[in-house]
Amino acid sequence: MATTAIIKDFLQQFPSITIALALLVFLLLKKLQKSSPRNPSLPVVPGLPLIGNLLQLKDKKPHQTFTRWAEVYGPIYSIKTGASTVVVLNTTDVAKEAMVTRFPSISTRKLSNALKILTSDKCMVATSDYNEFHKTTKRYILSGFLGANAQKRFRSHRDTMIKNMVRTLHSYTKDKPLQAFNFRNVFENELFGLALKQTLGKDLESPVYVEELGTTLSREEIFEVLVLDPLMGAIDVDWRDFFPYLRWVPNKSLQMKIERMFNRRKAVMKALVGQEKKRIASGEVLNSYVDFLSSEGKTSSEEELNMLIWEPIIETSDTTLVTTEWAMYELAKNKSHQDQLYQEIESVCGSDKVTEENISQLP
Ligand code: HEM
């Protein structure tokens, strides 16, 4: 939802008495803030009372606004989204310093209401605070999924994915050379397949009966419940995120929408992981993250195990998809970069296909 719509919605729902009350609370908070010890001062982007910089962020590409501000205020500055102060980091170096060198000190970030529900209150490596849970689950994801040995074990899945993508792209350019092509469809389908093979041991070949929903879902519907819906939910804005002192005001429709997404995701994960647990109990072993986690045998509850398996599904299917899409978009806009990339690949691979071994040889 656009920020202006949220504010409009807010103003419509809460007439003058609430706004006067909110203003009072805001002024009190300001007074309290003045008397507390201050952090080192940062450049502040000027905004409006109460809503801060929200109106300046109303377009759908806030990164462009952040970049414009960086030209004026430098690589680190602060803005106000309603009552919350947000520090914006604008260069790779400062982002790396915050996310790697000083990770423990920023890890306790506050999540939006939607993310709090969808992540089962930080029960994912990527959103967890730096604590024992983070240390253990990060170790799991490195040894069972992302680390060099795990990546070696999954190599054949990635090779199959690349072969399928290339085959589809070739046949399309041969059959419809002049027609625009939607890369997303191919990447989305293949990356979801890769995610399922790596996490559960195999792609979905037939619809799955989800007991808790009392229905059978196709692979496409499962993709929607596990990946698309939660991501749409994650960027849903609840105006109470900007005004935490008004969190007591109910926002039932959004709350119910996000809870429905969470419950459907939970039900589908339970069905998928349940199938694999039965397989493992029958003695059939596959090369997968669920097999790895079961052999570790230390995850405390069914819900925690299902969250740990869902996490790489969403990261493989979506994060990698949008990164690839962004790279293709940038390449598509720039003919000279396409030519340069083609020449670089040709100089390393000749007329052979690119393999993972070639990647480190590319300039
Ligand atoms: C090209 C694809 C990817 C990109 C660009 C990417 C980018 C990122 C970024 C920027 C972060 C830091 C986020 C933050 O702290 O707010 C992150 C964290 C993380 N990513 Fe990815 N990611 C990609 C693929 C994946 C995949 C496939 C997985 C599969 C398991 C994954 C798992 C994680 C985990 C577990 C974390 C949290 C690490 C920690 O807390 O120490 N990512 N990723």
UniProtKB/TrEMBL annotation:
Location relative to the cell:
Membrane
Q: Which GO terms describe its biological process?
A: ent-kaurene oxidation to kaurenoic acid; gibberellin biosynthetic process; secondary metabolite biosynthetic process
InterPro entries hit by this protein: Cyt_P450 (IPR001128), Cyt_P450_E_grp-I (IPR002401), Cyt_P450_sf (IPR036396), KO_chloroplastic (IPR044225)
Where are its TM segments located?
12-29
- At the top level of its lineage, which domain of life is listed? Eukaryota
Membrane topology category: Single-pass membrane protein
Check the record and name the Pfam families matching this protein. p450
Annotated keywords: Membrane, Transmembrane, Transmembrane helix
Keyword check for Transmembrane helix? yes
Q: Name one GO molecular function term.
A: heme binding
Protein family: Belongs to the cytochrome P450 family.
Protein name, UniProt field: Ent-kaurene oxidase
What species is given as this protein's source? Coptis chinensis
